[in-house]
Amino acid sequence: MTLMAQDRTLPAPPVYVDAAPFWAGAAEGRLMIRRCPSCGKAHWYPRPHCPLCGHGETDWEAASGRGTIYSVSVTRRVPVPYAVAYVTLEEGPTMLTNIVDCDLDGLKIGDAVSVTFKPAEDGQMVPMFRPA
Do 107 and 99 form a contact (C-beta atoms < 8 A)? Predict the structure, then answer.
């Protein structure tokens, strides 16, 4: 039996001042990440300092929106089944996200994915991924 991902109700995400550019980008259909000007590496989750080299300032940039599944788990014992996964972005960081618009039973490690955006209860767009 094929288990298809379905849209489910998403709670409104808290929008903190430090992450406002991330949510503004999502509202425009862009996945925003931060990159350190000192070591040149991108990181996730967004924070104002670099967790890799300790530099005190980082810059926002639009990510490509492409990545691969590093790990995936399908939650089935809920009214609307869904997949949660770690996705490694082309830019390097790995982020926890949902995989949507797919056959949940067909997902596997190494699958190529691309970003998509789904609305939360308050209309805020939330980045997720679907098979590429």
Answer: yes
Task: Quote the domain boundaries for residue 117.
Answer: 17-131
**CA distances, 84 to each of 59, 72, 96, 119 (Å):** 28, 6, 7, 17
Q: Is residue 11 part of a domain?
A: no
More confident of the two residues 8 and 102: 102
Which residue did the predictor score with more confidence, 27 or 15?
27
Helices and strands in the chain, H and E counts: 1, 8
Q: Are the C-beta atoms of residues 15 and 24 closer than 8 Å to each other? A: no
Asked if residue 97 belongs to a domain, the reply is yes
Which residue is listed with tokens 């903190």? 16
Count of domains for the chain: 1
Q: Is residue 61 part of a domain?
A: yes
pLDDT of residue 68 exceeding 80: yes
Cβ-contact 9, 121 below 8 angstroms? yes
**Do you know the residue count of the chain?**
132
pTM: 0.92
